[in-house]
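thoughts on these tokens:
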Amino acid sequence: MTEIEQDQFVIDTCDRLGEIKAQIADLEKIEKKLKEDLVATGIKIGEGSLFRVTVTTATRESLDMEAVKEKLSPQFLRAHTKTTEYTTVRVTARKAD
């Protein structure tokens, strides 16, 4: 792949990723509204022509890390902190030139 081809590949890939993320955001808004509508009906199981939906209410326990950090020493926290490497790909719309 030539440098020009690679540059065009990067441009096309960045734009395609941005388009996909925008579509996903739109679809997630629609998904949220549809879920809210189903929950509001009070149903536990809904049958469509193609899909079945189940609505479940549950409880979850979570650890309040801020409270834990206040109770434990900085040395203990450092000794039990796991460090991992990760890669982030952020997409933002470009401003018009």
About this structure: Helices lie at 3-41, 65-71, 74-79. The mean pLDDT is 94. The two ends are 29 Å apart (CA to CA).
